[in-house]
Amino acid sequence: MSNFVYVLNGPNLNLLGKRQPEIYGHETLADVERDCGALGDELGLRVRFLQSNWEGQIIDWIHEAREEASGIVINPGAFTHTSVAILDALNAFEGTVIEVHISNVHRRESFRHHSYISLRADGIIVGCGTLGYQLGLRRIAAMAP
Ligand code: DQA
User: Fold this and answer.
1) Which 3-state string (H, E, C) describes the chain?
2) Tens digit of each residue's pLDDT, the chain (145 residues)
3) Which position among 6, 26, 101, 133 bears the catalytic label?
4) Is residue 24 annotated as a catalytic residue, yes or no?
5) Where are the domains of the chain?
6) Phi and psi angles of residue 27, each rounded to the nearest 5 degrees, phi first
7) Distance between CA atoms of residues 103 and 129, nearest Å
8) What atom of ligand 1 comes closest to residue 12's alpha carbon?
9) Which one of 70, 87, 97, 115 is least enclosed by Cβ atoms within 10 Å?
């Protein structure tokens, strides 16, 4: 079993720390990447941390992960609520999938309450801030045989 984990981020998450900090906090995506890398070292996971504003790019990375990774931590951003295509790609991935949302989507607009990704996710972490990514990595490490 590979110790490779993909951490995938969807649209607008490149603006983390700058956009709506009252909702998403002040940490940047670079901070989150650094913390995930450090935790990966501690847990014996190799972390590939990626972000794209393009749905097709995220799908291509999920296909890549099929060949290489035992787990995916994914915050698909707004694609969570719209993308059957990302759901289909994740359904073709055999490892563990953890869905992360920085904010508590259930306390927000009703269009954020439905997630296509949750139909595939093995675990869902919502409203724990950027710590959610680390919780996702810990879950994947705990599930490794
Ligand atoms: C988000 C929640 C989504 O509804 C939103 O579109 C995002 C970020 C979160 O991390 O809380 O871009 O996934």
Assistant:
1) CCCEEEEEECCCHHHCCCCCHHHHCCCCHHHHHHHHHHHHHHHCCEEEEEECCCHHHHHHHHHHHHHHCCEEEEECHHHHHCCHHHHHHHHCCCCEEEEEECCCHHHCCHHHCCCCHHHCCCEEEECCCCHHHHHHHHHHHHHCC
2) 679 999 999 999 999 999 999 999 999 999 999 999 999 999 999 999 999 999 999 999 999 999 999 999 999 999 999 999 999 999 999 999 999 999 999 999 999 999 999 999 999 999 999 999 999 999 999 987 6
3) 101
4) yes
5) 4-143
6) -70, 140
7) 6
8) 12
9) 87
Enter the tokens of residue 58: 């995220």
Rounded Cα gap, residues 140 and 89, in angstroms: 19
Q: How much distance in Å is there from the Cα of 135 to the middle of ligand 1?
A: 17
Fold of 4-143: Rossmann fold (3.40.50)
**Separation in Å, CA 25 to CA 7, 37, 51, 117, 128:** 19, 20, 18, 23, 11
Identify the CA nearest to 81 among candidates 117, 132, 129, 44: 117
